[in-house]
Amino acid sequence: FAGDTGEIKSETREQIDAKVCEWREEGKAEIIPGVLFIDEVHMLDIECFSFLNRAMENDMAPVIVMASNKGITTIRGTKYKAPHGIPHDLLDRMLIISTKA
């Protein structure tokens, strides 16, 4: 890991990507996209949302389901408020389904 942030070094990521590609070509591995469910999404901070934004652009991105019971609330790690504490650029890319208890 690359220090206090817990971010994985790009060199390590590249090595893992290369190994996974090698295994795919050899028929030893298959990548199957899945579903990522995030409950209490308003608890994520701005860095987590940045990661999710990048991850959603990947060809193998999972379907992401987020749940929150908050209305307009502060985006953690910022002074800004947004619906469900989710940054506006990510909200613009989402399909929001309202549910009733």
Topology (elements, then pairings):
Blueprint (H helix, E strand, L loop, with lengths): L9 H16 L9 E4 L7 H11 L6 E4 L5 E3 L6 E3 L4 H4 L10
Structural notes for this entry:
This protein has helices at 10-25, 46-56, 88-91; strands spanning 35-38, 63-66, 72-74, 81-83. 31% of the residues lie in helices and 14% in strands. Strands 1-2 form a two-stranded parallel sheet. It has a two-stranded antiparallel ribbon with strand order 3-4. It has 101 residues and is of the alpha+beta class.
User: Fraction of residues in helices?
Assistant: 25-40%
**Overall SS class:** alpha+beta
Query: Average pLDDT across residues?
Result: 87
Number of strands: 4
Tertiary shape: elongated
Contiguous helical run count: 3
**Strand content of the residues, in percent?**
5-15%
Stretches with pLDDT under 50, minimum 5 residues? none
Please give the order of strands in the largest beta sheet.
1-2
The H-and-E topology, N to C, reads as HEHEEEH
In short:
The protein is of the alpha+beta class and 101 residues long. It is 31% helix and 14% strand.
